[in-house]
Amino acid sequence: MYVLASSRPDAAELERNVDELRTVIIRLRRDLTNKEGYADRLEVLLRARTERMDELANTIATLREQNRRLNEEADHLAEMVRMSPGDAP
């Protein structure tokens, strides 16, 4: 409820305080909006980074499995060469 300026001697000061508080509220809303936008962008970047890390982890797992199979094949071939009859005296 508004009080007429002539009915209160401090009405002008109160109006000035109200205007200052409105200005503060406007600034705080703008800051909050900016920070929410920043947080949203960070979430997008984090999601992209996490997806990339998952892709790389899968690639590493695949390469490890390939290396394991290649080592097994190399061991098998080395055993075959060691047992070959051409080396017998």
Number of helices: 1
Number of individual domains? 1
User: How many E-type strands?
Assistant: 0
**Morphology:** rod-shaped
Mean of the pLDDT scores? 90
Rg, nearest Å: 37 Å
Describe the protein's architecture and organization.
Helix content is 81%, strand content 0%. By secondary structure, it is mainly α. It has one helix spanning 11-82. It has one helix and no strands. It is rod-shaped, with a radius of gyration of 37 Å. It has one domain (11-82).
Give the helix/strand layout:
Layout: H1 11-82
List keywords for this structure.
1 helix, mainly alpha
Q: Could you give a quick summary of the protein structure above?
A:
This protein is mostly helical and 89 residues long.
